[in-house]
Amino acid sequence: MKVVDRTVLEKVIQPRSLNSHKGDYGRLLLIGGTYPFGGAIIMAALAAVHSGAGLVTVATDRENIAALHAHLPEAMAFDIQDEKLLKEQIQKAEVLLIGPGLAENSLEKEVLQLIVDLVSEHQILIMDGGAISLYSKGTLPFPKAQTIFTPHQKEWERLSGLKIADQTVEKSQEAVNSLPAGTIVVQKKHGTTIFQSGNGNHFQLSIGGPYQATGGMGDTLAGMIAGFAGQFKMTPLLERVTAAVYLHSAIAEELSKENYVVLPTEISKEIPKWMKKLAKKENML
């Protein structure tokens, strides 16, 4: 096991080229926030944009779009029930995140089915929250895309078949190894652990705490992972994911020095400042 430290941030987060443009920093499609979980996809989108994603589009309930734009005019949005546009956006995206605030009903299952059918090996697919629960029912094939799962312990139980009490690092690694090679699993818990199928070197956080135990924390993490996955393409995907996970908890730990509870939206506000200093290789952590 390797304990993650700030060196992964210094390796992944790099200064931007003067000749770059928004298309260089990831075309993201975020899907979720269906009634009554509209805030989840807003928090994921906030985190993705603040993490530096170049283009962020959100598919959500039509009634949720005004609220999203009130918080984040930088994101584009459309009705999740617009199947024609949804198909177009799935095929255009480099990184897809599905699950934050995704209700488990027939519409959402059809959307997940559509994504699994359409994604290619050249895309990155992140499954979080409701998408993990829907996928765990076992009726869908494994996506062709590079796939990342971000389960909390109960979701990991559904996905892996391991009871929470049995979720040791060794057994979790075995379960991950049963997935196609290269699949990444971010197992969210105290001491969040990051696994990759076919890679025995799992990575564990030694930072973070109960001040993060509030609604939206996982949605924000998923958005950060999507933002990092769409950028920093010179580094392996596993390192991009690990850097996002570490930065999420590092910011929360710093905020906890003055706050009993750390709000996910406060983490998002801090991301650009931290990335700026880390890109300059200044000592912040």
UniProtKB/TrEMBL annotation:
This is ADP-dependent (S)-NAD(P)H-hydrate dehydratase. Belongs to the NnrD/CARKD family. (6S)-NADPHX binds at A40, G101, H152, D219. One of its GO terms (biological process) is metabolite repair. Transmembrane segments: none annotated. Catalyzes the dehydration of the S-form of NAD(P)HX at the expense of ADP, which is converted to AMP. Together with NAD(P)HX epimerase, which catalyzes the epimerization of the S- and R-forms, the enzyme allows the repair of both epimers of NAD(P)HX, a damaged form of NAD(P)H that is a result of enzymatic or heat-dependent hydration. Pfam families: Carb_kinase. Residues 5-278 form the YjeF C-terminal domain. It comes from the Bacteria. One of its GO terms (molecular function) is NAD(P)HX epimerase activity. The lineage of its organism: Bacteria, Bacillati, Bacillota, Bacilli, Lactobacillales. InterPro entries: Carbohydrate_kinase_pred_CS (IPR017953), CARKD (IPR000631), Ribokinase-like (IPR029056). It catalyses: (6S)-NADHX + ADP = AMP + phosphate + NADH + H(+); (6S)-NADPHX + ADP = AMP + phosphate + NADPH + H(+). Keywords: ATP-binding, Lyase, NAD, NADP, Nucleotide-binding. Homotetramer. It comes from Streptococcus constellatus. Its EC number is 4.2.1.136. Its cofactor is Mg(2+). AMP binds at K188, K189, H190, G191, T192, G218. PROSITE patterns: YJEF_C_2 (PS01050), YJEF_C_3 (PS51383). The keyword ATP-binding applies. The gene is nnrD. It is an enzyme of class 4 (lyase).
